[in-house]
TrEMBL record:
GO terms for molecular function: transmembrane transporter activity. The lineage of its organism: Bacteria, Pseudomonadati, Pseudomonadota, Alphaproteobacteria, Hyphomicrobiales. InterPro entries: ABC_transp_permease (IPR001851), BCAA_transport_permease (IPR052157). The chain crosses the membrane at residues 12-34, 40-60, 67-86, 98-117, 138-162, 191-211, 223-253, 259-280. It comes from Methylobacterium currus. It is a multi-pass membrane protein. This is Branched-chain amino acid ABC transporter permease. Keywords: Amino-acid transport, Cell membrane, Membrane, Transmembrane, Transmembrane helix, Transport. The keyword Transport applies.
Length: 290
């Protein structure tokens, strides 16, 4: 039996990790909610953002949190350009084509990263991962605490953009009725590109929050996107609130699974939940609102 302090630390670490998972899932669920497709390039784009953070640190000694100011707009622009000039034109309006294009894009990006950086694993040469905050008898990782706060802030900001701005209203209109939105003068292709750009911007923030404690190689994003997909299914496809709540739940489950079964088997609990949700509630926790 574990001491209460260990169980509380495991729960808090799970919540902090889950908040960053939720941020990755937000981009995925946002794209699904508007474009109604699964973006198979999501993991590869996360890897691109993580290499950008690593490159900024290696070349310019730029702190990952400060690097966010440059990498987020760059990733937004990359996402906007990919949707506007590659995915949209290549799909010819077919959802099946979109899936194939994003799958092809994922393969191209991963192999381009493999050609540029080889398969070596890279991490930031920094002692930031060792910094902790004392909370009574508890020791909490400082990078994870920053990641938790930043993830909640970004989720709140995204909610404000979607619910309090003209751009957000246009995105919600296109998500609900594409033809009706087009008839009232909304440029649907531009809204699609903005949505894809926002998804990539969420990945950029997540990459800046992950890199102080994680490593990167050309396949790093695949592991995170599997967890993100589970979160989207758990929370409900297309639901922002579902992505946040699902991310926190998955983070806690992973933490306790790792504590009980060991780090190498920590993700077993995640995929058991994935199967359970599909069996019991296929629409997810917030599926009715999605």
């Amino acid at each position: 039996m574990y001491a209460p302090q260990i169980l509380i630390e495991a729960a808090l670490n799970g919540l902090m990790t889950g908040a960053v998972y939720a941020l990755i899932a937000l981009g995925l669920t946002l794209v699904y909610g508007v474009l109604h497709i699964i973006n198979f390039a999501h993991g590869a784009l996360l890897t691109v953002a993580m290499f950008a953070v690593w490159g900024a640190f290696a070349l310019f000694h730029l702190d990952p949190y400060w690097a966010m100011l440059g990498i987020v707009p760059l990733m937004f622009g990359l996402g906007y350009g990919l949707q506007r000039f590659v995915i949209g034109p290549a799909s010819h309006g077919s959802d099946n084509n979109v899936l194939l294009v994003t799958l092809g894009l994922s393969i191209v990006l991963e192999n381009a990263l493999l050609a540029l950086f080889r398969s070596d694993t890279r991490a930031l040469d920094s002692d930031a991962a060792l910094q902790v905050v004392e909370l009574g008898p508890l020791l909490l990782s400082t990078p994870r605490l920053i990641g938790f706060a930043a993830s909640l802030a970004v989720t709140g900001l995204l909610w404000l953009v979607l619910n309090r701005t003209d751009t957000g209203r246009a995105i919600r209109a296109v998500a609900r009725e594409k033809l009706g939105a087009r008839l009232v003068g909304i440029e649907v292709d531009h809204v699609y590109a903005v949505t894809f750009g926002l998804g990539c911007a969420c990945l950029a923030v997540a990459a800046c929050l992950l890199m102080p404690t994680y490593y990167v190689n050309p396949r790093s994003g695949a592991a995170f996107v599997l967890v993100a997909f589970t979160i989207v299914v758990l929370g409900g496809m297309g639901s922002i609130a579902g992505a946040l709540v699902g991310g926190l739940i998955i983070g806690v489950v992973e933490s306790f699974s790792g504590l009980l079964l060991g780090d190498s088997l920590g993700q077993i609990g995640i995929f058991l939940i994935f199967i359970l949700v599909l069996l019991v509630r296929p629409t997810g926790l917030f599926g009715a609102r999605a």
